Amino acid sequence: MKRAVRSYISFTRNERIGMVCLSALIIILLAVRITMVYYVHPKHNAEEEQKLRAAWEVFKRSQPKPISDSVRNEQSTYADKTSEDDAPLPSIININTSDSETLVRLKGIGPAMAHKILAYRKKHLFKKVDELLDVQSIPKGTFDVVKKHLAVDSSKSSE
């Protein structure tokens, strides 16, 4: 009988370890709860709260206001247009005498494409404006935009 009661009331080693861990956890949580009242309560930290609010206001004022995508795109487009408009285009550019800087001023022609045009011109001079389509990687759309500014006549100068 004693043995039956003892086996009914006694705990195994794993059960004792579990109870000790749970007891330690409860004690730690109670200690945190008791000490947390002092640190969280606003009447104890009014001074720190004022400092944090002042720092937050300074931070909010220092951040730039968000810009919508449409305004951002308009600004970048405007910046691109002003850089293109810095150097006015001549009315007609002679492909056979123009340099890369003059070609780059044309809309749709970048430095790489201007270099390809000059390399093609070194091999053989242009006889017609339409031969510009023979230059590698010049799209038809770009050609249609720039062809009104181009000529192959040797009597026209590039500037």
UniProtKB/TrEMBL annotation:
Pfam families: HHH_3. GO terms for biological process: protein secretion by the type II secretion system. It comes from the Bacteria. Keywords: Membrane, Transmembrane, Transmembrane helix. The keyword DNA damage does not apply. GO terms for cellular component: type II protein secretion system complex. Residues 65-90 are annotated as: Disordered. The chain crosses the membrane at residues 20-40. PANTHER family: ENDONUCLEASE/EXONUCLEASE/PHOSPHATASE FAMILY DOMAIN-CONTAINING PROTEIN 1, ENDONUCLEASE_EXONUCLEASE_PHOSPHATASE FAMILY DOMAIN-CONTAINING PROTEIN 1. This is Helix-hairpin-helix domain-containing protein. It comes from Flavipsychrobacter stenotrophus.
